[in-house]
Amino acid sequence: MEYVHSVWNYIASVCSCLHCAEDVGAQNIEPNERTHLLVDPVNHSPALRRSNSDGLSNDYSHSLPKKDDQTALSRLVQNTAINMINVGAMDCHSLEHQEYTDRIKTYSQRLHELWNNVQHPNITRKGLLKDVPSHQFYITKPIYAKDTLQMKLFIEKALIGVNQIQIDHKEAVVVPFQIP
Amino acid sequence: METQLEKVLSDIVTQPDTVGALLANRQGLCLGVKGDINPNVSGIGMAISDQVAGLEPRNAVAQPEARHPTICLYSGNRRCVIQRNGEITGVIYKQHTSAPTSD
C-alpha cells in the first residue's frame, strides 16, 4: 500500500509539473480545461538568445567558404531555435494535489454533462431489415438445393425452347406498297 | 413454334410445391407464363436478377456460375425463385406446403 502511495505521489508530481505553466499567465483568471499548459512558449524559447548564434557563426566565419552560405546556415540555426520550446527554463507553478484531483472531478463531470447533451446520430440502428417485424424468421430460412436444381433445369430447358422459336411465314414477309 | 417452351412451362408447374412459372426476355418482356403467376412480374424478375448479378462482378470472372445467381425470396408460406441465364430470366413461384428435404 505504501508503494502504491509513493507511486501515486510520483505520478501526481509529474502531472502537476506538466500542468505547471497553466497558471503563469492566468493567475487572475479561473483556470479551466481550455487553459494552455504552456503559456506563450515562443517568448520562453531560446530564440531570444539568437545573438549567441550570430556570434557562433562569426567565430567560425573563416572556415565557411562564402558569405551567402554563412547567412543561410545562421538562418537555419535561428529557425531551429525559434521552433524549440524550453520547458525547463519556464516558470513552474506546481499544482497542489488536492487542486489536481478537484480538477479531474470537475472536468470529468463537465465532460459527462456534455456527452449526455450531445445528439448521437451514429447510434441509430443500421440494416436493411430493421423495420421488418420478424426478420429473424426470414433470416433463418434456408435455400433449398431442390429449388436451385429445379431452377437450373428449368432455365436450361427454357433456353433450348426459346432458341427453337422461329417464324414460319406462310405469306410474303415483304409486302410491296402500291406506289402509283 | 413455341411448343417446346409451352411444354417446359407445363412440366415445371406439375412439379411438387410449384404453383407458377414465368419466362422473361432480356427486356423484361414475358415470353411465357403458366400457373398462378402474374405475367407483369416478368419485368421485376428481370430487374432483380440483373441487380443481383451486379453484386459480385469480380466473381463472374473466376466462376461463371456467379454470373447466373439464383435468388430466393420468401413471403409468408410462398417463395419466389429467380434466375437469369444470359438472354432469359426464369421466375418460379413455390408454395410451402411441407418442408422439403434439403439434399
From TrEMBL, chain A:
One of its GO terms (biological process) is cholesterol homeostasis. It is found in: Late endosome membrane; Lysosome membrane. This is Ragulator complex protein LAMTOR1. Pfam families: LAMTOR. Residues 44-66 are annotated as: Disordered. GO terms for cellular component: late endosome membrane; lysosomal membrane; membrane raft; Ragulator complex. Belongs to the LAMTOR1 family. One of its GO terms (molecular function) is molecular adaptor activity. It is a lipid-anchor. Keywords: Endosome, Lipoprotein, Lysosome, Membrane, Myristate, Palmitate. InterPro entries: LAMTOR1/MEH1.
From TrEMBL, chain B:
PANTHER family: RAGULATOR COMPLEX PROTEIN LAMTOR5. GO terms for molecular function: guanyl-nucleotide exchange factor activity. Pfam families: LAMTOR5. One of its GO terms (biological process) is negative regulation of apoptotic process. GO terms for cellular component: lysosome; Ragulator complex. It comes from the Eukaryota. It comes from Drosophila pseudoobscura pseudoobscura. Belongs to the LAMTOR5 family. InterPro entries: LAMTOR5. The keyword Lipid biosynthesis does not apply. The keyword S-adenosyl-L-methionine does not apply. This is Late endosomal/lysosomal adaptor and MAPK and MTOR activator 5. Gene3D superfamilies: Dynein light chain 2a, cytoplasmic. It is found in: Cytoplasm; Lysosome. Keywords: Cytoplasm, Lysosome.
